[in-house]
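Friendly challenge for the regulars: who can give me the C-alpha cells for this chain first? No prize, just bragging rights.
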Amino acid sequence: MNKNTPISRRNFLHISSFGLGSSLLSTSSAPSTQLKSLDPIKLALDWKAEGEYGGFYQALATGIYQDHGLDVTIRPVNPQTNNTQLLLGGVVDFSIGASLNSFKAIEQNIPLVTVAAMFQKNIQILLTHPGVGNESLADLQGKPIFISAAARFTYWPILKQKYGFTDNQIRPYNSNMAPFLADKNSAQQGILTSEPYSIEKQGGFKPVIHLLADAGYNPYSFTIKTTQNFANHHPDLVHRFLDASIRGWYSYLDNPQPGYQLIKQDNPDIDDDLLNYSFHQLKEYNLMTLGEAKTLGIGAMTDERWQAFFQSTVDFGMVDPGVDYHQAYTLKFVNKGVDYYQQSV
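First reply, four minutes later:
Bragging rights claimed.
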C-alpha cells in the first residue's frame, strides 16, 4: 500500500522554491528497534521544536504512537519551508496548519483538508511596553507595530477595520526583538507561549500581552492538515495518528517531562525555563480544552465554529465568499469524547 503517492500540482499560488531536502531540520522518531508491522507516518511542524508541539513529542517519547501501530517521524522545519509543497509531494503525511490557509487552499484548488484543531484559541499576540499608555489595542492607533509579511494577510486587515490602524504603522518583523525593545512606544507580534518570555529575559520587563483572539481574530490554531487523497484512502491511519496524538497531549498536560527530552533533542537551543513557561501558558489559558473540547476532547472542531470563522474572513475581505469552505475540513476523525482519548493515558 503506497500511502505517499505524489500529487502533481504546480500551479498553486505562493509556493516556495526552497528545496525540499534543505528545508528540513533535524527529526525525531521512535527508537531504531522497530517492529516491521508499524506503519510509517511523517509529521511536519511549522517551526523548530518547541513546547507548542509537546503532545506530539510526548506521544513519541512514551510509546503512544507505537501502541497505535505507528512509526512516527516528527520534522521541525525552517521558516522558508512550504508545508503545502511537502504534503502534495508526499514528503510528509501531515503538517501543522492554520484555519485561514485552509480556506485559501480551497480557493486556489489545492486538495488539502484539516482533520483536527489542537488549540481551541488562537495564540497570536501583540506585545507592548508597560507603563507608556499602550494598555489596549485601541491605544496603538498611529504607533509603530512590528509584524511579519504573512500577518498582512491574516489578522492585520481585522485590526485595520476594528481599530483604525493604517499600513504606514507597519514595521517589518524578522524574529529580531531589538527594534521593539528600543522603542517603548511600539508594539510587536508574537505567540503567547514564547515571545513574552523572551522579552522579559532580554528586556528585563514583563510586556503587556494583547491576545488577538480577544480582538476578533480567533481561528482554530495549530491545526492538523493532510491531503484529501490521503484522508480518503487511508482513514484508518488518520484515525490512529490523531487518536495517538491527542492522547499524547493529555499525557503531556499531565506530566510533560518525557516530551521535553525529545524537544530538546530536536532543538538544543531551548531550555527547561522556556519549556516550563510555554507549558504554564498552555495550562493557564486552557488553550486546548476550551469550549467544545471540554466534552469532545482535544482536537475538537465543529461546523458552527468553522462557519463563523469563514464568515468573518469574508466580511473582512480575506476570502472569496464563493469558496465552498466545507471542503477545508472534516469532522469524521475527531470529537470522540474526553473519556475515549484519556483511555490508557
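The two ends are 30 Å apart (CA to CA). Residues 235-254 form the longest helix (20 residues). Your move, everyone else.
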